[in-house]
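Morning!

As promised:
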Amino acid sequence: MEEYAGQQVSTVEAGDEQSESSGSIATYTAGLGFALLLTGASFLVSQTNLLWAPGVPAGLAVLAIAQMGVHLVFFLHIGTGSDNTNNVLALGFGVLIVTLIVAGSLWIMANLDTNMLPASAIMEMQR
Amino acid sequence: MARGGEGPAPVRIVVAYGFWIFLLSDIIMFSALFATYAVLSGQTDGGPSAHKLFELRHVGIETLCLLFSSYTCGLGILAVGRGHMRGFYLCFALTFVLGATFLGLELSEFVGMVAHGAGPSRSAFLSAFFSLVGLHGAHVTAGLTWLTFMVAQTAVRGPRDFVRRRLLCFSLFWHALDIIWVALLTLVYLMGAR
């Protein structure tokens, strides 16, 4: 209990900021609306035959990234406020690592896939 | 924390920053499984492919459950910030019900797949599918347990500052699960079912 006693004082002053930085009902509702719209669009794009088929995965990826942005801004409140600088920097670093892992794995595995002998040819060589 | 002469940042900001770092590390762990799935999604070993297995209507309902549970979770945090305790309990009860519905739908999908001979041991594609989607499901389960504890703690201790900070961390966790679901829905279900 003691450990909270000191914090009680410092967070009481911060109480006023609480409502402004954790958004409002309007923010959440706008976020929900955008998210629903983008989800609906994703389902539509994936099901329709009207679009040029090879372009559909790219379209889906763009819609997904847009929706993640909506979630970050409207639900997680990652914005441009001065208290948010560190959060945005950490997010940028996270995005870098995720890109390296996903793109790097796909690149290396595709490369191996093209350059490796098929299993049947390996069996042939062992004979 | 970029505050100049204003003194140290409030505890709430520091706690949220630390928890945000944890969430990013969690997302990086997920990215490894996403990469695995992307590499293995074509390796069906003669078994059922993504196109045959996934029902988009089912997945659409799951998506709506998660999205609305994220919304009610956010409203619950607003309610507790303003001292509306009945609104808070109502919102968090809704969050729990929606999260549990999502989990039930996912489990019924898994059980149906295993019953039709499409369990995780069938092919590399299905192993990757069950690890990726299953890990997200495990996170949702952990989130529901945490939610239950937090509601109990709020009821016993009242909406004090440390309880509100924990509630804020829970809401960040719950929203982050929704972000992971967006990636999962797009890569696994929407691209797979085409």
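Chain A is about 80% helix and 0% strand.

Hope this helps with the figure draft.
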